[in-house]
Amino acid sequence: MLIRPTEEDDWQTLKTIRLAALRDAPTAFGVSYQSAAADSDARWKQRAASSSLPEFWLAFDGAEPVGLAGGGVDQAGRYHLIAMWVAPAARGSDAARRLVDAVKARAVARGHARVVLDVAPENGRAAGFYRREGFVFLDEREPLASHPHISVQRMAWLAVQPAAQASR
Predict the structure, then answer these.
(1) Residue in 51, 50, 118 with CA at minimum distance from that of residue 84
(2) Could you say which DSSP state residue 82 is in?
(3) Considering the chain, what percentage of its residues have pLDDT values greater than 90?
(4) Cβ of 62: how many Cβ atoms within 10 Å?
(5) pLDDT averaged over the chain?
(6) If we measure between CA atoms, which residue out of 117, 121, 63, 61 comes closest to residue 88?
(7) 2-166 under CATH 3.40.50.10860, yes or no
(8) Which of 37, 94, 95, 105 could lock 59 by a disulfide, CB 3.0 to 4.6 Å apart?
(9) CA distances from 139 to 2, 57, 89, 131, 136 (A)
């Protein structure tokens, strides 16, 4: 499994995998398939450029793209994990863990002590995965931008775990 940041030349792959994610799990993301599909090629190129924020990573199984994750600083100055998705055939592999590790590493390299994300607590598979990766639920909820009837809850991962938690 290869995990690497996107470059501008990856724009078509990023677009394909992002649209696949939005088709597979339409209520798990803050944007809709329709709005993402309507984006121009220039916007996809900008999104894939390694110098853009948020940054994106792709997971490859051989030459096949099987997942993506994004990370960037939100309006509150927090490093935010976004757009996390792994293709159904690759779930259970280490793609998800390695994508999250790439986002965590970039956050720390950029001087952030924590990474936050939003997840619907009812999405048990995702919430359980994030817990295993060291994220904890915070008492912060908000409506999902693309589906306001769905409430998402913030989770956070701390780069330096308290001693009591680090021994677990």
Answers:
(1) 118
(2) E
(3) 77
(4) 8
(5) 91
(6) 61
(7) no
(8) 95
(9) 35, 29, 33, 15, 10
Amino acid 166: pLDDT: 46
Query: What residues does each domain of the chain span?
Result: 2-166
What is the helix (H) or strand (E) element at residue 59, kind and residue range? strand 55-61
Name the token pair of 89: 């055939």
Q: Is the predicted pLDDT of residue 56 greater than 90, yes or no?
A: yes
**Full-model pTM:** 0.89
- Sequence-ordered alpha helix ranges (H) in 38-160: 41-48, 95-109, 124-132
Which tokens in the block code for residue 140?
Answer: 């912060």
Using CA atoms, how far residue 164 sits from 101, 125, 154, in Å, is: 22, 26, 22
